[in-house]
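**User:** My hope is that you can spare some time for a protein that puzzles me. As I understand it, each token names a local backbone shape. I would be glad if you read both lines and explained how they fit together. The protein I mean follows directly.
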Amino acid sequence: MSGAYAIRSLVCAVFVIPMGYWADRYGPRWVLLPCFILLGAGMMAIAKVTTIWQLFLIQGAGIGIGMSGPFVCIMSTVAKCMNQEGD
């Protein structure tokens, strides 16, 4: 389980960069929708895991990519709000 979680964290860290670019370019709404769909599909697919490679694939690809979008959008929104308070 910890190996699958580590792969998920690494995949999430790699995909944060393109998600940030896409969120700045197209807006957070167009980043969050596919990420939440992928995240939801990954969570449902976890229930059907029977072998270890399936766990690693679903945790890494599905949930890892799906978690990177919300992380970026939340962090950028908080940063914008904090910047506006200082003005």
Observations:
- The chain is about 90% helix and 0% strand.
- Residues 52-86 form the longest helix (35 residues).
